[in-house]
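Researcher: Please predict.
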Amino acid sequence: MTGVELDDFGDLLRYLRRQARLTQRELGMAVGYSEGQISRLEQRRRPPDPVAVAALFVPALRLAKQSTAGRKLVELAQHARRPAPKAADSADIPPPPAHLVARHELLANLAALLAAEGRVVIGGLPGVGKTTLAAAAARERANDRAVCWLTLTAGVTLTVPALVRRVTQILGEPDIPQQHLALDERLRLLASGLAAQPTLLCLDNGHLLAKAPAVLAVVRHILATTNTELLVTSRVDLRLPGAAALRVDGLRPAEGSALVTGLATLPTPLAAELVARTDGNPMLIRLALARLRAGGDPAEFVARLETQPEIAGYLLDTTIGSLSTDARRLVELIAVCGHPVDLFDTRLTELSHRVVGRYDVLAGMAELQDRHLLTDPTAAVLHPLVADRVRAELATDPTGQRLWHRMIALWAALKPGIVRTGTRNGISQNVLPIPRTQIPD
């Protein structure tokens, strides 16, 4: 009997090892396996990895890659592959939050878009429920395909080895030490595995890919070489080849009220005000209600929501805390206006440059749009709490506040009908018309 006539991977491996006059220990040392692992492969107690067989075992057995025995060994390894463990895949998908408010229409839209396009980026402000929506879609998709969910975390999973290893595990392959395989060879054989197993790759916190070009390059390579479905959540505008975009906003008023009712007992008008001030953002609602459980006057708390440490910290960390100077100027402009602003109005730009100082309007607009802080530049508005937070910060900078109020007052003289009076949370928003002759040169 010749080696190539054997139809079992373990039997053929044993035959070829003995033909090469290698012990199990010697073969294991050559390919990075233990003696016990080689023994389990030969006894069919461990599924072979076709990637490792082609890249490591064939050379170690002194076989040419195109030899009959070498091809046969790889083919048998592929036939003996372990099927993808779908139950284990689903275990990595984040569970629904407590008191989940189902968003059936949005989920149906996502499912239809994913089925039609195959690659979808879910975008929106932090806390609007992108991960919850993606997880619900992934659980549904797991009924007919393998689901690989990876929460990207800087310094932990935001690496090429972590991504490749996770996808490999989902395909049912044993984990092979990365140093034994060249990345291009690993990716080539990984693509072969993805072609044989329909797979949905889910990347949570996709905005971090902008800081990891090597990981992003591997994702793009997988998309270019396979039919793998992709679902990404991102708080920035993430541009991936062939990926459709789905924007997620806050809960609708009725949905927001349902969430408040499930988490706390508030008077109906106060619950409605909380939903309005958070623009239905589930995370902000949960943070606010958690703080209210500690005590205090609920009405006063909701009225001064943007000054509360938990809320302010979340807004600073996730939205406006790291804005460039250009974007920050635009945010201040929109906040102090208190009504929709046409950012393409050259007179407004010129006036703000003269009074407050020069800044790049287009660069600021692009940054705010990328962060989902700005939707329509011709009628620019901010999330209510973001605007309130910016006004609260300006109240601690009298010079800056005075310049912006002067600019708005001068603008009111040019644009009758935009004058607003009154205060909000102790911050003056009076806009008094001033003659055009007082516009500074």
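Model: Residues 368 and 374 are 5 Å apart (CA to CA).
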